[in-house]
């Protein structure tokens, strides 16, 4: 294995199998070399400026997040990743702060649903978890997911809503954190009602 290829492979391994053109150039490797590896079929371009090793399977969750620093998995996608929903998402639900420019992300990914929030609550409850393929991805914690569901109840499919609420209260709920978030979102009374019932 030549030295340049080894550098590219190591870079891919550190970045969930996805390499940006800028990362390759930071290694001192020219775009001409990238083109040569593409022509030999060693790497494959999956988006403008994004490559994967041809032998690897692309982690869709990691791919989506590497395209935007703002994308945090939320709603149905986060529920699935937390095992609070058994429904495999057809769309990736992401939340971004109002005013964030994600036009390229939307253009390149027809399978995303965007939710916009005020910047002051955008990072509330943000954490990380392993995707089904093992990449570390950003998503909202379980308590934030419950608050988002309760806030948007009218737009959520009833079966997903009920399963997520039951699953949350069945598996070690963090009531203190849940109430703290509920207060921020102005839904404390609704959350207290669920806590009493469940």
Strand content: 15-25%
The gyration radius over C-alpha positions equals 20 Å
Structural class, by secondary structure, is: alpha+beta
Number of strands: 8
Order of helices and strands: HEHHEEHEHEHEHEEHHHH
What is the count of DSSP helices, taking H or I runs of 4+ residues? 11
Question: How do the strands of the widest beta sheet line up side by side?
Answer: 1-3-2
The level of helicity is 40-55%
Describe what you observe in this structure.
By secondary structure, the chain is an alpha+beta fold. The protein is built from 11 helices and 8 strands. It has helices spanning 3-14, 21-26, 31-40, 60-66, 75-81, 103-108, 119-122, 142-151, 158-170, 175-185, 188-197, and strands at residues 18-20, 43-47, 50-53, 72-73, 92-97, 112-117, 126-130, 136-140. The chain has a 3-stranded antiparallel sheet, sandwiched between helices. Helix 6 links the parallel strand 5 (92-97) and strand 6 (112-117). The radius of gyration is 20 Å and the shape is elongated. The termini are far apart.
Please give a handful of descriptors for the protein shown.
single chain, 198 residues, alpha+beta, 11 helices, elongated
